[in-house]
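Data card: per-record layout.
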Amino acid sequence: MARNMWVQEQELGDALERRELASLVKASYDLVVAKLPKSRRPGAPRPVKKRHPRRSTR
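The structure for this 58-residue chain is written out next.
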């Protein structure tokens, strides 16, 4: 059940310094973001939805 235990800061806090833990979390985040499509990455411009002109009912 790795997904339930991948972050156990209280136990890791004794083995790793806060700075090292932060560095590992950042590296993990960067790896995940690198696999995302460019359009889904943080900071990517949001696509603008094109609005269709309203048709008159006359």
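Known properties of this structure: The helical segments are 2-5, 9-15, 18-35. The CA atoms of residues 39 and 46 lie 8 Å apart.

See the next section for split statistics.
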